[in-house]
Amino acid sequence: MIVLAGAMGWGEEFRAYTGQHWAALGVCTLAIVATAAMGVRVRGSRYESAFRIWLGWTVLIYKVAETVYDALPHRFEVASSLPLQFCDLVAFAAGGALLVRSRVYRVLLYFWGVGLSPMAVMMPTLRVGWFHADYWLFWISHALVLCAAGYDIVARGYRPTLRDLGSACAWSLVYLAVVMGVNAALDVNYGFVGNPRTGSPAAIEQIGPWPFRVLPLALCVGLLFHGLYAVWRLPRWLGLWGRGAAD
User: Fold this and answer.
1) Which of 5, 28, 174, 207 could cross-link with 213 by S-S, CB 3.0 to 4.6 Å?
2) Is 110 contained in some domain?
3) How far is CA 75 from the centre of its chain?
4) Average pLDDT by consecutive 10-residue portion of the chain (247 residues)?
5) What pLDDT does residue 242 have?
6) Which range marks the domain in which residue 145 is found?
7) Residue 199: what pLDDT?
């Protein structure tokens, strides 16, 4: 398999929407399902707390180590090494959601982790293959966030409330204001709301030219968040089941 992948160039270059991409997505999906299934299996047992804490620290320690690694002199690039992408911040929120009793971390893990992280793996800006550290850093980081989100929904029963929706939108606006200031000061493109010369997924560039795409992009994210809230309320609105738990 390694020889075949090497012959296809998978080791040196990452090509989106090819077998290489689908294989990575498949592995991520298996990891998410396995984590959620393990969470359900240990739920209510003496191992539940240990599993939750182990997962939380795994995500947090990994993200801290990745951030430190990217800050090393031979690695650091101001356009990509600062932990200012949504997926960077939600990894820290994922650790917090599993380790401390704070609703806001669970809110961000759901709305940012479930809403935005899948877009990063479906429309990756990754360019290098599995012979390069960046390949593994990208996939492991996103897989851990999605595993934590899947566990929190399936095993811990997180369900968004209307207040959670408002909180997610408010924190996203704070993020937008901060990151646009950073982008303007450093001429970078964190959050894909900066100068597109530093690279954005093609789908985002189709929304419109910078800076005019910022407002439509923010509206799209807002609609996505409303959809993530409504998906849990729609069956009740349709009378298919009674009121569920808000937690």
Assistant:
1) 207
2) yes
3) 22
4) 58 91 96 98 95 97 96 92 94 96 95 94 90 95 97 96 97 96 91 71 70 86 96 76 48
5) 52
6) 2-237
7) 59
Q: Are 16 and 123 in contact (CB under 8 A)?
A: yes
Residue 85 lies in a domain: yes
Does any domain span residue 246? no
Look-up: residue for tokens 């996203």?
A: 172
Query: What is the SS3 assignment for 63?
Result: helix
**Would you state the pLDDT for residue 8?**
58
What pLDDT is stored for residue 7 in this prediction?
A: 46
Determine the pLDDT at residue 246.
47
- Beta bridge mates, 13: 128
Closest among 91, 84, 85, 83 to 108, alpha carbons compared:
91
Side chain identity at residue 214, one-letter code: V
3-state secondary structure of 201: coil
Across 191-225, b (16+ Cβ under 10 Å) vs e yields: bbbbbeebebeeebeebeebeebbeebeeebeeeb
Buried b / exposed e over 41-65, threshold 16 CB at 10 Å, is: ebeeeeeeeebbeebbebbbebbee
Residue 22 falls within a domain, yes or no? Answer: yes
Domain count, the chain: 1
For residue 107, give the nearest of 122, 93, 89 by alpha carbon.
93
For the chain, the first-to-last Cα distance in angstroms comes to 45
